[in-house]
Amino acid sequence: MTLTFLGTADSKGVPRFWCACPVCQEARTGGVNRRRRTALLLRGEGQTVLLDAGVDLHTQLAGLSGPLLPDAVLISHAHNDHILGLGDLLDFERYEGGNLAIYAPPPVIPHLAERFGYAFGEGSPVLPMPPNGVQFAGFNIRLFGVPHGANGSSHAYRLDCPGFRAALVTDALDIPARVAQEWLTDLDLLALGTSFADESACERGRRSVYDIREALALPWARAARRVVLTHLSHAVDVRRLELPDGWAFASDGLSLDLK
Ligand SMILES: [Zn+2]
Ligand SMILES: [Zn+2]
Prior knowledge:
Structural class: alpha/beta
Bound molecules: zinc ion
CATH topology: Metallo-beta-lactamase, Chain A
Order of helices and strands: EHEEHEHHEHEEEEEHEEHHEEE
CATH superfamily: Ribonuclease Z/Hydroxyacylglutathione hydrolase-like
């Protein structure tokens, strides 16, 4: 069972196309800070599940060796950087006879219908994610609600199989203790979105994700056996930041063995 980070950037990607900062310049020449938008691939027991389908999905899938036919696609929330790749998948389903099981939390589906109206004409191609989750690639996969600061609300993924528990929380801020207690304790792996190193100078009401400084202090993150930081912006230069043991920065193409 493997989890592959196809994209590890914040919503704007790295480099930001309008930016000439040192990180964006380094990324532009193919450096270690180059990042595409969010998508993850979970593989196991002969099945492939795509978790989110960001703006860069076509290049991400085209770059994989061998043709890819995901069995399922699970969407966390309706922001462009997590869903615009869905257009390619809906076309594949409609015109190429694909048989994708596409799931999203019920409150997200109307936003997808609005964005991809042409594909919703004959009934929704997106299924409501059942509260007890779905079984794919050897995992029970669930989605749970998390606050997304100034950007409203989002969902995070919880993956469970015997002897292994993971949570993928790309877009969240100020997760209440009761949610952390229910979903984020005793984790073998936590992938956590931290777009900036330190946003303490920014008004809290304008923020939407944790920063690295906060992540390092979160009790449930500190208790996870392994933490991978993702959803990173051009404000994070991985050449200049050090993380404690058990913590690492994600990079595009990073593949983790889960069991
Ligand atoms: Zn995002
Ligand atoms: Zn920049």
